[in-house]
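User:
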Amino acid sequence: MTADRIPSADSVVGYEPSLGRVARTGTRGELSRGTFRCAAEAAAEGRWEAAAELIEVSVAEADELRDVYERWPAAILDWIRDRGVVPDVIDDALARLSELIGAEAMSGIQAEWPLFTAAVRRAAHSCRTAQPSAVAEIERARLQWMGVHDRAVDRVSGMVDVAVRTVGEDSLGDLWNFLMSDWYDLHARRYSLAAQPWQDSAHQLMIAIVDGFHAHLTGTGRQGDIEIIDEPTRTGFRFAPCGSGGRSVDSQITGGAPRAAAPFGFAVTTEPHDWAWNTVGICSYCVHCCLLNEVMPIDRLGYPTRVIDAPTWDAAAPATTCTWWVYRDPADVPDDIYRRVGRDPARRTVDHGASHE
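Assistant: Predicted structure:
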């Protein structure tokens, strides 16, 4: 919708080269606030074009999720079959999952995607024609996306749970390596110090975090708000909770039914694994964040690209907040970050100052 739009002088969106598309622009404080929230506020203030641009860019923010949430469930099923799990076992596990999350979720995100884009078109039109209903239409679009997103997350998390139930917890790292092999290659090429200075990489990594987690509708209010934390050696992005992996551990965004609890019982780690921060209670969905941001970059580049303090499941006291850190110099990443994913800090290939050359 917004890909071909030429932003106005006071536009709240613009072309972002690292994403290859239009994205939000603004200060850190502005970008820490959810896109739907900002669109509704702009409409309430009579900033009609800004409101329309913001609601339209929510589709661009969500599009990567549409892609992977549609592809991954089928790929997971193929991966399970390739490991020799008998069809009856798979069918029983899929029937259980369908009963838990419902037929609408099992139909996949692509089937529901047009409902979201239609809601966005209505909201954008109401803004550009200065309709009194504009704020309400923006909220309808947010609620539409939240339903689509959450059902898609349940489907992906449920399929990962099926893999754990049928193949085993020890294979979970291999599953995510299979699903993300293309991401690994792109990530390693882009964020190598041979490709670009670390200050450019750090900036791009932070842009991707903010853009992606707006679409996950982080926070208990599900607006996509992010707390941005500045420290001397790093910048943090805190989600309280994340709207995706957070569904496994947080009762407030799941109607009192976190997916790691009954009746869902979606798998969390029961033993330490390098690919899950050697921590018990990591939801199986969150494992991919450890691999993509810490394990794979350390192995290929010599340093993690982002460091994550992940949520953990404990039925009595779940830790639901997730924080992602981007270091200003990868040489400053502490040794224990390497050790917690089973890596020797001697793998570090950067010296202080090398990332700024």
